[in-house]
Queue: 4 jobs
Job 1
Amino acid sequence: MGEVITLRGGNFGAEQTEAYVTIAGTSPTNSSYYTWQDNLIMLKVPELGESGLVYVYVNGKKSNGVLFSNYAALPMPIEGENFGFEPRIISVNPVTGTTGTLITITGNNFGSSRENGGVFFPWEFESPSLNPLMAAPEFIEASETEFGYELWSDREIRVRLPDGAASGNIEVRTARGKSRPAVIDVSGRPGTKTFREKRSYTISYSVDVKILEASRPNTLYLWLPKPVSSPSQRNITLLSRSTEPFMENYRGISLFKLDNVSAGYSEQITLSYRVDVYGQETSLRAQSIRPDENPAFAVYMHSSNLIPSADPQIKKQAETIIGRERNSYNKAKLIYDWFLKQMEITESLPPAYTVAESLEEKKADPYLAALLYCAMARASGLPCIPASGVLVNQNRQTIRHYWAEFWINGFGWVPVDPAMGAGAVPASFIEMEDHANFYFGCLDSRRITLSRGEPNLSQMESRGRVVSHPRSYSIQNIWEEAAGGLESYSSLWGDIIITGIYIQ
């Protein structure tokens, strides 16, 4: 701190005027600048300066980031017997990578198992404020559901760089505290991903249960989804709930348990959350995409009852569409363009319609369109998952909706909404001017995601009677399970209710 650093580059401007530099999110005072030329800036490191990225802002535009390390904040070897129990990072290897890169973190006090610990990477969004990096830095955790953690021991962690991570400081957080930061450089990606137009929602949803006939012992299990945490949907905060869950979080779903209920018993379980949603825009250079070498993502190419990618007709149609194309991004675009030209997208189809029948009849609603797109992508060798949730219209009402995401090596998940891209936009929803181009690679911030992928839940009891609710706001195989002497009951699952919206 207090030393002078030199930035060399171009297009800084001959004078500083309203331009400025940020160092790890901190903007130096005007007196800190010694020289400002079009290709040279010299300034003093501000007090309390941290290691992180250096950016130059000129006329509202931001330069590329360059890594800066504050010597005083670098990890030092542990000496003596009296040192803290918080996690400590000694080294990170490699220090440069792209989405999906396996990173080895060595140190100590990580804990023999991960438990509630995690590795947190910097996350960056486009802020409408004049100086966005003056705000406290935000982080994104490595994804457990996407095989983010390969090893966790007291002295070593092997973790994959998560989708949405940016260059900057990473931290290890455990019940003992958080480590001092270490620097990581996210570079070499075949494109850019931008998060903007933040909207904060408060939502509420519930299930009403009434017991009609029952004898003891009996149990009723209810699986209530939680808003999904992802690069574009963050800061999930539980505001209130009427009942404590039996299991807090299993694959993004809370399990509630009602034991030994009697005839005439009734209960309403209500959840309320706050969630921040960002619009997402992607720009990819198809020629820079490398073949996917991550075996973990092969699971997103498997055929299932929900996504029958092994169906002969689906495979045949996919082969016809992609031809000799081998580039992942181009495959996804060819399938999307075929949807827009060949499929008739309607608001809803009879529940008995299957994915295979949807292809045969060339008709789909948003639910079937998302599943058929995933099936055809997987049949083409492209990892793809469905997503579900609700759209929020201009009247603050919610509409159940479904879309998909496909994986690009070194870049991450790319959203695609074949239904809305084809123009099947609810009348009360704000429509994009060029919906066909927008909904391939981009998403609006007027939707809330309740599930990504196929949350495959297991029965709690071998003789339990399972109930599912297809085409609901969460794609999950189990919603209810009755066991024992619970002979008859009724359940009413309410829609997602918007109780507040804040737009930034």
Note: The helical segments are 312-322, 328-342, 355-361, 366-379, 418-421, 435-438.
Job 2
Amino acid sequence: MTGTPAEAVLNQLGPILGDAISASRGVREQYSRSESYRIPALPDLVARPSTTAEVQAIVRACASSGLPVVAFGAGTSLEGNAATIMGGLCVDLSRMDQILAINAADMDVRVQPGIRRKTLNAQLRDTGLFFPIDPGADASIGGMTSTRGSGTMAVRYGTMRDNVLSLEVVLSDGRAIRTSSRARKSAAGYDLTRLFVGAEGTLGIITEVTLRLHPQPEAIAAAVCPFPSLAAAVEAAVFVMQAAIPVARIELLDDVMMRGVNRHSGLSYPEAPTLFIEFHGTPAGVAEQAEVVEGLAREAGAEGLRWATEPEARSRLWHARDNTLYAGRALRPGCEAIITDICVPISALAECLEATKRDADESGLLAPIVGHVGDGNFHMLILVDPADAEEIERGRAFHARMVRRAISLDGTCTGEHGIGTGKMVYLEEELGDAVDVMRLVKQALDPRGVMNPGKIFTLAGGGAA
């Protein structure tokens, strides 16, 4: 490493960070991959700051040496969003994991980016408030913000875009800025908060997040509802959404995924296309919602609902749903999963899902489905043999058709996982000239191109974002 930018940064930061910065290969390998199926990428250095001031020092050192700097949360990203594909310094924010202020009267909380969502809700329990965004994985709040995450409860509570009130961000020149006040509405200048939510660390490193909180529901009920066909399950979901019933979650698992869930979690649900539904509210409100949804489901052909009202039963149900990545992989041991993430208008969901399912079958691919169908967002886990180049190529070609089908229906290539390294070509196809505007923003805020390069888009002239 002699004479390299990494050595210069290590020499500069060593006296500041001490053992919180490392060039050890063993340490670096821990940060070389995430839940993504993509090829591991080894950082040159790993730093674990504890304060915003230390993040500022890291960014200044990297900027002066031209060394890429990439923020890392819990490692649960699925598109290589935090991969150091060009080397550089990986900033592990897990030590910055504190709640800084709970404003119960205003229903908001200010946190550091490394806190995990489950830890946050455990510490909020006595306030009567909770943070509802649930991507399944126990992700960090900073990572969820950077990828504009959402998950199972977005159908009622929105996504990270709707629940982040303000940010503190360290820019590429080392300045720390606050993007907004805590006011619930503002017309003060550009909406910088939304600019950084979903920027995947390409414009700055998030060091504080102020989140909107919600009252803990007085009553909760959940149901598992199997259907005779995928079309019937989708029809029921569309009925529910078009009736404006405020369900908290409405998730779809196809028959293949239900088989995997049963095997992985030791359950005995019917192996048929199934909706997992949850209701939040007052006891009377939950009962009314459940009655209406049950009627709509039966009208669409539901084969009976299995209710879960006790916390333990609901926990088992949603634990099974949250582990569908591992359940899907267990259907084919030794496989890798190409994870897809398209989203379409709800009126186009049935057409998109059925066409995609037929395409998978005709391609000879094992690809279980799980979807946040209340939002029109669904995923397929394309299970491929990592040693079979032909099968991998077949899986990628299927993925490309799937994404382009969604775009043709006025949908998107990513509902919640972000662009990362894997969807740059699709972003260009989806948004066209708007990507040029993103490039201008990137060049203005990160002129040296050190903030998480190689993500979201390429820069004009062949450089990396």
Note: The longest strand covers residues 205-212.
Job 3
Amino acid sequence: MEYRGYDSAGVATLHNNQIHLMRAKGKVVNLKQKVDAKPQTDTIGIGHTRWATHGEPSERNAHPHVAGDIALVHNGIIENYKELQAELAAKGVVCASSTDSEVLAQLINDYYQQSKDFVKSVQQALQRIRGTFGVAVLCAHDENQLIAARRGSPIQIGVGADATFVASDATALVGHVKDVIYLQDDQLAICEGV
């Protein structure tokens, strides 16, 4: 996805109920060096190249964002993020970044801590969002699921022979999948491993 322009990149993977996060400012090669230095055997993960819309280009503002048990990548703009951030702050939640995307991760985690229901938590949080989103979300305690959803920002799910991919641009799926599912606005997909 480098051709679209970006200022940072990151990946989050899951193993043994832990989220492994690696992010880097600048080019993807900077992230690759970090990943190569600390290889993982995890089999589910999310990655993102970011172009700053909220918050300066930095590692702390890079995606994925992790909030408790939740890791999230997001394209789009959450118009009511300041309102949601204030609501979370009143509960003692402190954001580590200056992005609207982390607020969504924190909101999902807040719901998850109450219900321990990953799918329901994502649904509840997305119902509160004003603005656009294309998201992929992981939960530390559900290593078999990845949730993708969209409103106004594209999301495609590529189904391969032995892997499933979620992307914001079908170009990223070329050569990796046989079938592509295009999510429509306000659709949510649960991708499950075997």
Note: Residues 1-5 have pLDDT under 50 and may be disordered.
Job 4
Amino acid sequence: MHAGYDDGPEYSPDGKWIYFNSNRAGGWDIWRMPAGGAGPEDARAERVTSDEGEDWFPHVSPDGKKIVFLTFSKGTPDHPANKVVALRMMEAPGAHGKRVNMKIQELMKVFGGQGTINVNSWAPDSKSFAYVTYELLPE
């Protein structure tokens, strides 16, 4: 078994993979494993993102080609509310039968965090997705 915390599991649309976020490698990254499990010593678990940000809530588009996720700034220990966060997107691993260009695109920065994109909110045609942003009212 790995050392770390896993959260936010979600099946890929074809049911072959489970995507999740984990801090098993130090910072928070997006991972995936076969739907049947990662196997002994988590040998079949694959790290999908690995950069300076803290990545959470991976959601694969219905066509299986893209992943949208939320990124907190480096060192954010969890997924708190009331933070400036980035909505990011990348090509899904295996979308073309192998891991190819895994370039991550930052779509926008928003004020949010916890609750911004916790659940899959892709449109059925994979052309758009919903998210939540908000502002704090003065007390």
Note: The chain is about 0% helix and 40% strand.
